[in-house]
Amino acid sequence: MCGGGVDLTIERKQFGDRLILERFALCVPAGEAVALTGPSGRGKSTVLRIVAGLDRDFHGQRQLDQAVRVTMVFQEPRLLPWRTARQSLLLCQPPGGAEAVAAMLQAVGLAGAEDLYPAQMSLGMQRRAALARALVMQPDLLILDEAFASLDQITAEAMRALLRSERQRRPFTLLMATHSPDDLALVDRVVAL
Predict the structure, then answer these.
(1) Which of 14, 23, 64, 92 is exposed most, by the fewest CB atoms within 10 A?
(2) What is the DSSP letter of 77?
(3) Which segments of the chain does DSSP mark as H helices, in order?
(4) Are 142 and 173 in contact (CB under 8 A)?
(5) Contact yes or no for 79/134 (Cβ under 8 A)
(6) Residues 6+ away with beta carbon under 8 Å from 25
(7) Mean pLDDT over residues 125-151, rounded?
């Protein structure tokens, strides 16, 4: 095991006849922050989905301690359309309950928007709600897939500052895919695909 973190070996990953990844290995010790970079279509999102346990259709091995609490922020916010921002966070039954939810929604700048449904929010608000949902769960491993992509520069930097603050307060492993050079300041190591 890779220092209590993520230990992944992908011998081969295909979508139909299309080879996506071959002979790829990733070791992320507990508490480390790693960014996957590279051109679109190289398999960054696929690696994240395999690490999260959402894609098991690959040849290789994924090792992750069963007790590790994993949360993921996808490229699309993936909020339930019939739940408000507050309800989406409460549905996860986070440590700290409603008080933690209120504090996290405020931290991502959604105070006053807690009772909006996804259709009533901008894409940037939805992204922040998705980040709040992941962080309020106090993950051991946070996976971010282009989480700040559609945020304006000021808001994106505020979310990066929040992420740094959360990791200082309660260290956790971070694995992210990004095209943004600004995101690389959040990580200890960069892996190019």
Answers:
(1) 23
(2) -
(3) 44-52, 85-91, 97-107, 123-136, 153-169
(4) yes
(5) no
(6) 8, 9, 10
(7) 95
